[in-house]
Structures are given as C-alpha cells and as structure tokens.
Amino acid sequence: MSIKLLLLDVDGTMTDGKITYTNSGEEIKSFCVKDGLAIVSWMRLGGYVAIVTGRESQIVTKRAKELQINYLYQGVKDKRAVVEEILKELDIGWESVAAIGDDLNDLPMLLRARKSYVPANANEYVKQKVDTILKASGGNGAVREMIEDLLQMSGRIEEFRSVWEVG
Q: Which of 10, 47, 110, 149 could form a disulfide with 116 if both were Cys (CB 3.0 to 4.6 A apart)?
C-alpha cells in the first residue's frame, strides 16, 4: 500500500469533538500530543498531511503551524472538492489517500479514500461506511492509531519507531 496523503478532520477526530467557550468568548480545544508526534513522524518519512475541516478556528491554525502540516483548509463546505485540488497539486490520485473523520460531512472524503478510518466514538452510520473503526476515540490517539496501522501495513512501522532515535 502506498499511501502518500493523510486527510484529517478536526472536531471529533483530532479533538474529542467538544467545543468550549470561555466567558470572554474564546474557543478552547484540546489536541492529543501522541497524535501530533505521529503526524510529524509521518511527514519526516516523506508523507503529506492535510487538515480539511468544516469549522474555522485560530486554534486549529496554531496547531497546524506548530506541527508544520502541509495543507490546512478550514470552513470547508465541500471536502471532496478541496481534496481534489490537493491531489492535483501533488499529482496523485485517491488511491494514495487515507482519511479519518467522524461524522456525515466527512463521508465525501472517507468514501473516496483508498483507506478510511473513524475514531471509536464516531457517528454510527459513518462507522458502517469505512474500512476501519479505531479503538481510540477522537482526541485520544485515534490519528496516531491510524498512522501506525498504515505504517504496519506498508512494512514501515520500524522506520516510524526509529525516526526519533539518536545514535
């Protein structure tokens, strides 16, 4: 399997799906550090990552910048159309894509991706439409589990594990 691009939804996938507002109106989200490490490792191994989300948030912008994610698209109404543009730029097809999402608006990318994943706490209908239901919930290591599964299938899991070793 030659997956080159990971498509990530945010709310319910990279986070637990909760949106918290402070009294001053600031939005709060929590991201899993283990997911972040896996995303950075994936990119160090030559892969690409795109966040494609229906909401807009400065917090997501900050997280994407912190992880040096290749592509960030927020406020997206048509996820499939956005992904088509990324594929054109990278000169790859849907057969080189793995996607993770948790709800109905993620189906356009989940149904086209070569390998599709949902966190354990995803929408029940969406769970029926994907290749793999992960053990981890969104915001609690689901992205990490997806990346490790892809690398295990491609025989690159040891390479992934050794990315951070200093010798």
A: 110
How is 74-130 classified by DSSP, letter by letter?
A: -S-S-HHHHHHHHHHHHT--GGGEEEE--SGGGHHHHTTSSEEEE-TTS-HHHHTTS
- Residue ranges of the chain whose pLDDT lies below 50: none
Question: C-alpha distances in angstroms, 11 versus 45, 108, 124?
Answer: 26, 16, 16
Among 3.40.50.2000, 3.90.550.10, 3.50.50.60, 3.40.50.1000, name the CATH number for the domain at 5-162: 3.40.50.1000
In this prediction, residue 1 carries a pLDDT of: 56
